[in-house]
Here is the input.
Amino acid sequence: MEIVIGAAAGNIGSRIAKKVASANHSAVLLGNKLSSLHDLNIPNSSSYEVDMSNLEQVVEHTKGADAIFWLVPPNIAVSSLKEWYDDIIAAGVAAIKENKIPRVVAISSLGAGISDNLGTVTYVGNLDRAL
Here is the structure.
């Protein structure tokens, strides 16, 4: 099985990548810094420097995937967290639809969807609804 892991060099993504490899699956590692992905030393993997908010890049690097692990990586440097979440959600949804990826796992949050005024918790709820 080929499993795409978004933000694979992060705390959550790197753990998922190691689990995928230990289960003898092929891991496609996406992240914003290629050297960080290579530093993980994940066997049976391919690594791609990808802007997860870039729809075209995400669609391209998820072709042939049997599953995708998708989350929005933290980024305090953006001018709008809502736009950051919206762009990454849109890229993930486009990849799933265009590449007909049958299995999806996403990071959610307790309370997601309760209110439109909870900042990142609300944005994670948007991810839940989109997927």
User: Anything to note?
Assistant: The two ends are 21 Å apart (CA to CA). The chain has a mean pLDDT of 90. The beta strands are 2-5, 26-31, 45-49, 67-70, 103-106. The longest strand covers residues 26-31.
